[in-house]
TrEMBL record:
<dbReference type="InterPro" id="IPR017871">
    <property type="entry name" value="ABC_transporter-like_CS"/>
</dbReference>
<dbReference type="GO" id="GO:0015833">
    <property type="term" value="P:peptide transport"/>
</dbReference>
<dbReference type="InterPro" id="IPR013563">
    <property type="entry name" value="Oligopep_ABC_C"/>
</dbReference>
<dbReference type="InterPro" id="IPR027417">
    <property type="entry name" value="P-loop_NTPase"/>
</dbReference>
<dbReference type="Pfam" id="PF08352">
    <property type="entry name" value="oligo_HPY"/>
</dbReference>
<keyword id="KW-0813">Transport</keyword>
<protein>
    <submittedName>
        <fullName>ABC transporter ATP-binding protein</fullName>
    </submittedName>
</protein>
<dbReference type="InterPro" id="IPR003593">
    <property type="entry name" value="AAA+_ATPase"/>
</dbReference>
<dbReference type="GO" id="GO:0055085">
    <property type="term" value="P:transmembrane transport"/>
</dbReference>
<dbReference type="GO" id="GO:0005524">
    <property type="term" value="F:ATP binding"/>
</dbReference>
<keyword id="KW-0067">ATP-binding</keyword>
<dbReference type="InterPro" id="IPR050319">
    <property type="entry name" value="ABC_transp_ATP-bind"/>
</dbReference>
<dbReference type="GO" id="GO:0016887">
    <property type="term" value="F:ATP hydrolysis activity"/>
</dbReference>
<feature type="domain" description="ABC transporter">
    <location>
        <begin position="10"/>
        <end position="252"/>
    </location>
</feature>
<dbReference type="Pfam" id="PF00005">
    <property type="entry name" value="ABC_tran"/>
</dbReference>
<comment type="similarity">
    <text>Belongs to the ABC transporter superfamily.</text>
</comment>
<dbReference type="InterPro" id="IPR003439">
    <property type="entry name" value="ABC_transporter-like_ATP-bd"/>
</dbReference>
Length: 334
């Protein structure tokens, strides 16, 4: 049996921004391959500044790629106004801050109906808005129609934003830090909502987060991003219980339930206009710093040879010379 194509596929994606005052261009996304299958939730994880949001926005055509391509339902994304409008009906964005996403002068009804009006929805608008609010957990929906954002709690505002994404019945949502601005008591409710939407509607999702704990609770697969490139990917349980890349190990070590002491990375995330040679993580790598890479015979390779770009399939992969030498990890694509 042939494997069906992914719902969304990214191949060799690069997004470069011009440098300021004559400096080198910033390589925000620097060769990413990623697949999202129908009905799958993928967590894109990494610290601030690693390129997660730029990658997420490029999947909706909000940031056109410098090179590479994005495909949806096995068809390449094109960047005409008509094609982008059709694409964004099938792929919707949920932003981090619901207060910033909602116009304070618009009622909940108008906020949710906006997408229908933009896309000239031919059906019953009131029914569609009520159904979207109900699916997002705001019931009875009519009770919220005439409310304004300031009259809602933070969790309710985020549900309105999700309803605005659901009203067009998309196949994929891209959620950028969807619970980062919410109280801890509300985060679990929103995560449970996303899981329920996946189970009931077959909805796929890319969840962008810096929180590996969130990824554990919601994702089927995880992709760890560092300095514009995915450095480890695989099933969430496999990656988070037995991380192979030193960067993934460091991210996991700071979780409250981590069994070992936190790994303190040296220095700051490098400037994307000056990406280090060799493995892009080697300037901060605890494995190189403590001599383990030298003992494994890969220290020179870490400093001078790129581990390559990881393929976008479902297989577990890691872009790390040390992990490949010591664990027999699946190598990335050349």
């Amino acid at each position: 049996m042939t494997t069906p194509p992914p719902l969304l596929g990214v191949r060799g994606l690069h997004v470069t921004f011009p440098g300021r005052h004559g400096t080198a261009p910033a390589r925000a996304v620097d060769g990413v391959e990623l697949d999202i299958r129908a009905g799958e939730i993928v967590a894109l994880v990494g610290e601030s500044g690693c390129g997660k949001t730029t990658l997420a926005r490029s999947l909706l055509g909000l940031v056109p790629p410098t090179a590479g391509r994005v495909s949806f339902a096995d068809k390449p994304l094109t960047y005409s106004t008509k094609a982008l409008k059709a694409h964004r009906r099938r792929v919707q964005l949920v932003l981090q801050d619901p207060s910033g996403s909602l116009n304070p002068r618009h009622t909940v009804y108008d906020a949710v109906a906006e997408g229908l009006r933009i896309h000239r929805y031919a059906g019953d608008e009131r029914t569609a808005v009520a159904q979207a609010l109900s699916r997002a957990g705001l019931r009875p929906p009519e009770r919220f129609f005439l409310r304004y954002p300031h009259e809602l709690s933070g969790g309710q505002r985020q549900r309105v934003v999700i309803a605005g994404a659901l009203v067009l019945e998309p196949e994929l949502i891209v959620a950028d830090e969807p619970v980062a601005s919410l109280d801890a008591s509300v985060r679990g409710e929103i995560l449970a909502l996303l899981l329920r939407l996946r189970d009931e509607l077959g909805l796929s999702a890319l969840v962008v987060t810096h929180d590996l704990g969130l990824a554990w609770n919601i994702a089927d697969r995880v992709a760890v991003m560092y300095l514009g490139r995915i450095v480890e990917t695989g099933d969430v349980e496999q990656v988070l219980t037995a991380p192979q890349h030193p960067y993934t190990q460091a991210l996991l070590s700071v979780l409250p339930e981590a069994p070992s002491d936190p790994v303190v990375l040296t220095g700051e995330l490098p400037d994307p206009s000056r990406i280090p040679s060799g493995c892009r993580f080697h300037t901060r790598c605890q494995i190189l710093a403590n001599g383990e890479a030298e003992r494994a015979g890969v220290a020179q390779a870490c400093r001078t040879e790129s581990p390559g770009v990881l393929g976008g399939g479902a297989e577990a992969r890691v872009a790390c010379h040390w992990a490949r030498a010591g664990t027999g990890a699946v190598p990335g694509a050349p």
